[in-house]
Amino acid sequence: MNRYLPVARQHFLAALASTSVVVKSISAVVVLLYLLSWAVDTPYALGVTPGYLFPPNFWVWTLLTHGVVEQHIWGVAVNVGTVMTCGRLLEPLWGALELLIFFAVVNVSAGLLAGLAYLLTYVATFDLTYLFAVRAYGAAGFLGGVLVALKQTMGDTTVLRVPQVRLKAAPALVLLFLSLLRLSGLLESSAPLAAYSFGALSGWVYLRFYQRHSRGRGDMSDHFAFASFFPEALQPAVGLLAGLVHAALVKLKVCRKMVKRYDVGAPSSITISLPGTDPQDAERRRQLALKALNERLKRVDDQSAWPSMDDDDDEEEDEIRTDTQPLLPSSSGGPAGASLSSTSSSSMSQSSGGASTGGAQHPESSIISFEDAPSRS
User: Fold this and answer.
1) Tell me, what's the pLDDT at 246?
2) CB 137 within 8 A of CB 194
């Protein structure tokens, strides 16, 4: 185990060195606050406590700081790993500023929604533990938002081959995992589960309706619809409910209405851009098709580079057959030797006869020529 630690440390430092200032700064703040937690109760001062978040206390700074507070080393590893993954996979597509905006939006929204949820729970139960005993902090909220963003950009990527799990199923699987931990008692508080759920929801809302990019705002493609986060059997019902909620939010002017775009300046006839045929979705599908084609061509090249075992066996048999067959049969013994000697004697007699008569005739085909040999007396 000790021999793998230097290698892991080297890879970690190399990955951290290739990230931007935003990722390095967030990671450094996480580590520093973890070290500070040995002397100060950082979850109390910097984490979201529902009873202190709303008036009369109004600790609003905790909405910005709760996402970088950790008390355990494994929490630091998850937090830094989440930020670095976001920096390696999402920052090249978005840029450092957009990554920082996404980090702030998801953490503030997750903390605010979690505080409201616990406040409503207190109103329903009148249990003060939901107001002052709950501490919402850590990377759970931002982790939910990052998984939603990865589903949008590279949802068809295979995470596990056996069983086959794609990245688009990761948000639901992590939510199920946290729920099982909470039901089994291994998770002490329900705050991480609530923060993860609201972080994923706020990340989807931001990416779906509000994120600005070169093609406009949001992503209205079908593969990123709210129903796509659920199993296929539940998608029709969830889609109907989500449509009703979206229509209500449009009337309240919280969300924008999905509109059709017509590109009359296209080279062909009128090009209709519908929500299911978003250019971002089409570009994603082209990238996946190109990746599949490259992998198939690579497999074909690998197969053609290595000869098959049947060809090797045939070549070995040919070599053995060639080695065992003599080039010239033996002159001693057997009819083959006799025929060879008679043929040689007749050729020599013809050659000597031609030389004695002094003619200029040559045989049509001869193996050995005796023209330059001295005559015997």
Assistant:
1) 85
2) no
Phi then psi for residue 163, to 5 deg, are -70, 155
The model carries a pTM of 0.69
Return the structure tokens found at 337.
């030797």
Least confident of 54-68, 179-193, 213-227: 213-227
Could you give the CA distance from residue 229 to residue 38 in angstroms, rounded to a whole number? 39
Alpha-carbon dihedral angle through residues 81, 154, 142, 245, given to the nearest 10 degrees = -170
Say if residues 42 and 71 touch (Cβ distance below 8 Å).
Answer: yes
Which residues lie below 8 Å from residue 75, measured CB to CB, with a gap of 6+? 34, 138, 139
Query: CB–CB of 123/180 below 8 Å?
Result: no
Distance CA 109, CA 195 (A): 9
Side chain identity, residue 266? A
Q: What is the pLDDT of residues 230-246, one digit of tens each?
A: 888 888 999 999 889 88
